[in-house]
Amino acid sequence: MLETYLLPIRASALIFPALAFVMLVPVAVVLYRRHGVMRWSALSFYTFAYYGIATCCLVIMPLPSGSVDVCTKYAKMREPQLIPGSTFGDVWKEADHQFTLSALILTNPAVYKTVFNIALIVPLGMFLRYLLRWGLLPTTLAGLGTSLLFEITQYTGLFGIYPCPYRLADVDDLIVNTSGAVIGWLLAGPIVRRLSHPRHFDDRVLARHPVPFGRRVVALLLDWTGCLACAVVAAFPAYWMSVDFRLMSGAAAVVFLAWFVGLPRLTGTTPGKWLLLLRLTTADGKRPTAGKLLLRALLMALPVVPPMAMYGGGALVLLVNLVSEADVWRGIVAQIQQNPAYVQQQVFDTFDGRTLVRCLVLAVPVVFIHIGLVVYAVVVRRNPQDRSVHELASGVSNSALPHTRATRESAPEAGAVEYATSAEK
After folding, report:
1. What's the rounded Cα separation, in Å, for the pair 340 and 343?
2. Exposure of 419 by Cβ count < 10 A (0-12 exposed, 13-18 middle, 19+ buried)?
3. 127, 141, 400, 406 from 134: Cα distances, Å
4. Residue pair 176/115 in contact by the 8 Å Cβ criterion
5. DSSP 203-218
6. Which CA distances in Å does 373 have to 71, 190, 212, 304, 310?
7. Taking the complete model, does pTM exceed 0.70, yes or no?
8. pLDDT, tens digit, for every residue of 173-183?
């Protein structure tokens, strides 16, 4: 029975890191725009995300094998259990009609299942009260809705993926799970009274670091990714027609200057910084000149251009190859569809000692470039003013616009002041 619960937990532990990596940048953008910082808010979000993934795995796993006739093996699960209180009968049956503490509670699988169903939704009630400050009634309804979704998932055989249900939809589970949400809400009471909301911790961090380093890094990552994509598209015609590296370099340079000099000069920000509610200003708060922006861009490009050029060149070659050798790639896809082991066979047939040496030689500069980027980031982070080399040299730095939560919270105060002023008149 323990293995039934350990398998979903192990599965969620494998799924969560991959999902967290995919969600990293979108979540960072949303949290930085909403809170201005993503420390305690991010911890709360990812904790809840892991809980959600683990809960889903516990509800649907273990999954039946594809070779199993679900309708025959799980014939007893076809009809839902709609009689409330049948759990007590299951407890008595599992106890083998013995009225002892051990038989009724300590070693009774039905009791373990009921306790587990309660514990499954307890964190939801705690999250809703502590993070969202929901009352008892909304939390109870949320627990009921979540439990109902679980039972529908089980009754429909994972929404039709399986022809028949392989787990029993039980009205008692609905009642017990909803009770778990209520218990979680009650348990969160002392936490709410003694521990501040995560946004207060975020506000303290934001007071010390108005423009957090991570916020600038995410903006820079978005800018470099967007600039690289546009440079590849701009250089594609030159590569396709004549493989003229001067034209390709010129096209990439134009894109780079337009992105990091032209746009900030015209709008005060870059697309990445616009998403993160950042703008570029001088020490006196004015929009920087083109010369200062150019100096900043060139110094910023020194540790970044080499790896970006490698990635961009590789992407360009791949793009041209995909376009020019479309028939070959379609043949490879057909081979893979007919024989899934085709890729594995090709890799092992062509991979030898010389191939390994070539891969290692190509990997050495990539490793050193990324080590340089890490060292550069550490030096920047240890600066007392949270300034990087290109910011100190050019006199252009990041300033933060009000995040959305601060804007919403200041709106009622502004309205109150305006009302008081008009009342005095």
Report:
1. 7
2. exposed
3. 9, 11, 31, 21
4. no
5. HHHHHH-SS-HHHHHH
6. 57, 45, 18, 7, 14
7. no
8. 899 999 999 99
